[in-house]
Amino acid sequence: REQQTYIKELPQILPSETEIYLDLEGLPDERFVYQIGMVIKEKKSEKTFTFWADNADQEEEIFKQF
Description:
It contains one helix and three strands; from the N terminus they run βββα.
């Protein structure tokens, strides 16, 4: 909402052959995560996973699938 990102300390990340990117989308006021996205990169391959919840009742299920 404020269009700003605050970083307390830069993380020390060591190089790896496998990279994992995670994205959670939700409605903080409703405490509801409706989408979990993940990309796994290994050497020359890339796999993408997306899990969607249409409502709060499905939220637990997408975390189990994830």
